[in-house]
Amino acid sequence: MSETKMTRRGAMKVISGLLGLGVAAISGVPFLRFLLFPVGVKTVDSGKGFVDIAASTMVSRNAKPVYTEIIVPRVRDAWNTKTNVLLGGTWLVRNNRGALSAFSSVCPHLGCSIQRNKESVNDSVTFFCPCHSSAFSRNGERLSGPSPRGLDLLPVIEKNGRILVQWSNTVSSVNENDQAS
Ligand code: FES
Fold first, then answer.
1. Same domain, 70 and 150
2. Which residues pair with 61 in a beta bridge?
3. Are residues 24 and 103 in the same domain?
4. What is the C-alpha R_g of the chain?
């Protein structure tokens, strides 16, 4: 009988010990997460996906290119959240078949802001860079100037009557022979 009592007492000790360990483990998890933050946490969240920038009707077939800013509703890092952050700009062009292109407004030479040639819709020089006079066609091809390539295309989709683009800051490295004038 006393052996049975000892066995029960031992079992109770083991069970209460396990319960105590369980409680300690559960209450310790939040503390450990606090200590380790932000390890393993997605700390930056901005501009990775498509950003809604305009109504599709804003860009007509064969019409003048339309400039639009790319603004994300929210940028987050480990400690801060900012709203309505300007990432960059894009020139939107729709051809006569309705296909839409979104060109980065960052000049591929040294990163100045690309401007539209206001003279005419059908000018061969549709875009130019005011810094060193690189010129580009309506299709974004480089026509002249020190730019090492044509305008950079941004991924663009149209959905439910809206235009969405994916921002990427793609200032190129410059060829050694390129000379800024
Ligand atoms: S930065 Fe545009 S041509 Fe130099």
1. yes
2. 94
3. no
4. 29
Give kind and range of the element (H or E) at residue 92: strand 81-94
CA of 95 to the centre of ligand 1 (A): 26
Which H or E run includes 88? strand 81-94
Give me ligand 1 centre to Cα 93, in Å.
21
Ligand 1 atom 3: residue of nearest CA: 132
Q: Which domain holds residue 73?
A: 51-165
Local confidence pLDDT in tens for the 181 residues of the chain: 555 566 777 778 888 878 877 777 777 777 776 666 555 554 444 456 899 999 999 999 989 999 999 998 888 777 888 899 899 999 999 999 999 999 999 999 999 999 999 875 566 789 999 999 999 999 999 999 999 999 999 999 999 999 999 988 765 444 433 433 3
Do 84 and 28 lie in one domain? The reply is no
Q: Which two tokens stand for residue 75?
A: 């940028």
120 C-alpha vs ligand 1 centroid, how far in Å? 22
Edge-first strand listing for the sheet containing 162-165? 51-55, 162-165, 156-159
Question: Residue 107 CA: which ligand 1 atom is closest?
Answer: 2
Residues 12 and 80 in one domain: no
